Amino acid sequence: MKNSLKVFENIGELLTLEGASRKEGRRVTEADLSIIPDAVLVSHSGKIVWAGPAAKFSKDILAPFGGEREAEFIPLGGRTVTPGFVECHTHLVFAGDRSEEFEWRMQGQSYQDIAAKGGGILSTVRATRTASAPELQVLAQERVDRFVRQGVTTLEIKSGYGLNFETEKKILTVASQLKGPRIVRTYLGPHSRSPDHPDLQSYMERILAHDLPKMAREKLADRVDIYIENGFFDLALSQAFFAQAQELGLPISAHVEQLSDFGGTALALQYRPQSVDHVVYVSGETLQKLAQSETTAVLLPASDLYLKMRYPPARELLDQGARCALSTDFNPGTSPTQDLSLVGVLARVEMKMKLAEVLSAFTVGAAHALGLAGAVGSLTTGKASDFAVLDCSWRELFYAIGRHPVTDTYRAGEKL
Ligand SMILES: [Zn+2]
């Protein structure tokens, strides 16, 4: 990859999303997809050095990078090219599955009944603690490959199925060794009550005194996350967690307002998080504050579908100027799907998002959510040559659930 010069030519339609990127993912319209018909994209050392119409391409463009003789020409057969998708919220490293519990839930059994049978998050925690790192690696890599086949070039992965330092570290280490896309590792120790502690408070004390500083010292995570909700981490415990993460220089994200209007969004916004995720019950003044902040609202409609909950107020957020991202929330309990097309269709059908907004949410918006907007999410000069090649028009994206029109996925100019 070093110093390699590649000319991707005969691109039928190149969606650079330059406009969406310039607007930092806010109030995006179809014009902001910045579509170039019959285009050429030039990549050098994994980064874009030129993108434009074939009519304006000349061999002189290659001169500063060694000239035509150094270049590899890759014809894309008139296909469509979009920025690689950024999956900004997954719980991808886990063992076991919760398929049996799904059936129980659909038959109307309560969470308490299911927990009494040994189900729920703690069943995933038991399986993940028991699994060896190599076992987890194999399971996780298969899932990563499934994302890559859908055009994903950047992937966020949370811990949170260890609920003790040792297993949280195992999960984040596995995540860092996965092959394919860029990986962003998020420490989600405060995901739920730990079976090793009598209550949430004593687990949080352990996190603050030991786990979180050690995560930072050993550079095991790129950012942190917490589950704020009635019956999970309350506002006081969450505030203590944010304060320490900020002191340690770790960027913040949070699961907020998924099941109720609990106040997590308003609290998190005081700490300038990269993202607040779910935001189903956000409204009024808090919604307005979020829309005007630098924080990205990450919307996760597949989990709303599985939980038979309502969907987040996407239209209101977008119309007030919020930057939104979309993601699968892939996890074995509340969103066992990895299907980006399902998420995009739900956004269009249930949340009234326009196709251009969905595309921007999966690229520019999600890149912002991970603090990577300077490097990925759009196909403009200086950014990574991370893109997906489609065998159809971009208008067929997020239209047919389960159809993945991606033929090739390139990261830093290399085919994955
Ligand atoms: Zn989640």
SSE layout and pairings?
Layout lengths: L4 E11 L2 H5 L12 E10 L2 E7 L17 E5 L4 E4 L1 E3 L11 H8 L4 H6 L4 H10 L2 H16 L3 E7 L6 H12 L5 E6 L12 H18 L5 E2 L10 H13 L5 E4 L7 H6 L5 E4 L5 H9 L3 E4 L1 H6 L7 H6 L4 E3 L13 H10 L5 H15 L17 E4 L15 E6 L2 E2 L1
Parallel strand pairs: 1-4, 1-5, 6-7, 7-8, 8-9, 10-11, 11-12, 12-13
Antiparallel strand pairs: 1-2, 2-3, 5-14, 14-15, 15-16
The site of zinc ion (ZN) has 5 residues, from loops.
List the keywords.
Urease, subunit C, domain 1; TIM Barrel; 8-stranded mixed β-sheet; 4-stranded parallel β-sheet; 14 helices; 16 strands; binds zinc ion
Radius of gyration: 21 Å
Secondary structure tally, helices: 14
Determine the mean pLDDT.
96
**How many strands in all?**
16
Q: What does the overall shape look like? A: globular
Would you identify the CATH H-level superfamily of the largest domain? Metal-dependent hydrolases
What CATH architecture of the largest domain would you give? Alpha-Beta Barrel
Instruction: Assign the structural class, choosing from mainly alpha, mainly beta, alpha/beta, alpha+beta, or little secondary structure.
Output: alpha/beta
Summarize this structure briefly:
The protein contains 14 helices and 16 strands. It is an alpha/beta fold and 416 residues long.
Structure overview:
The chain is an alpha/beta fold. The chain folds into two domains: 5-84 and 377-415, Roll (Urease, subunit C, domain 1), CATH 2.30.40.10; 85-369, TIM Barrel (Alpha-Beta Barrel). Helices cover 34% and strands 20% of the residues. It contains 14 helices and 16 strands. The protein has helices spanning 18-22, 99-106, 111-116, 121-130, 133-148, 165-176, 200-217, 235-247, 264-269, 284-292, 301-306, 314-319, 340-349, 355-369; strands at residues 5-15, 35-44, 47-53, 71-75, 80-83, 85-87, 152-158, 182-187, 223-224, 253-256, 275-278, 296-299, 324-326, 387-390, 406-411, 414-415. Strands 1, 2, 3, 4, 5, 14, 15 and 16 form an eight-stranded mixed sheet that branches. The longest helix is centred in the middle third of the chain and has 18 residues, at 200-217.
